[in-house]
Amino acid sequence: MGAHGFGSLVRNAHGLVTFQLTPFRQKAVSGFLTRGVANGAKEAADALPTMLPGLLAGALIFKWGKDQFAANQRKNPEDFANDS
């Protein structure tokens, strides 16, 4: 690597301009209640037609599974007819 080593090859690349904004100048929660909640509600309403069939199918399958499990846990009275 020569005399300088790998870490100090280029200090200022000519023609390369970088910009940074200090964290103290950024507004992290600026407009959250005015724009963020409204935008989230709009995005959710836009996504609802594509998500609704899957959510409905999942809910129906879950309900069927719970009902089937409850039915399978019941005792059959005919199994105990000959007990004394």
TrEMBL record:
Single Gene Ontology BP annotation: mitochondrial electron transport, ubiquinol to cytochrome c
Membrane topology of this protein: Single-pass membrane protein
Task: Identify the keywords attached in UniProt to this record, alphabetized.
Answer: Electron transport, Membrane, Mitochondrion, Mitochondrion inner membrane, Respiratory chain, Transmembrane, Transmembrane helix, Transport
Report the locations given in the UniProt record: Mitochondrion inner membrane
Protein family membership? Belongs to the UQCRQ/QCR8 family.
PANTHER family, alphabetically? CYTOCHROME B-C1 COMPLEX SUBUNIT 8, UBIQUINOL-CYTOCHROME C REDUCTASE COMPLEX UBIQUINONE-BINDING PROTEIN QP-C
> What is this protein's function per UniProt?
Component of the ubiquinol-cytochrome c oxidoreductase, a multisubunit transmembrane complex that is part of the mitochondrial electron transport chain which drives oxidative phosphorylation. The complex plays an important role in the uptake of multiple carbon sources present in different host niches.
Per its record, how is this protein called by name? Cytochrome b-c1 complex subunit 8
Q: What is this organism's lineage?
A: Eukaryota, Choanoflagellata, Craspedida, Salpingoecidae, Salpingoeca
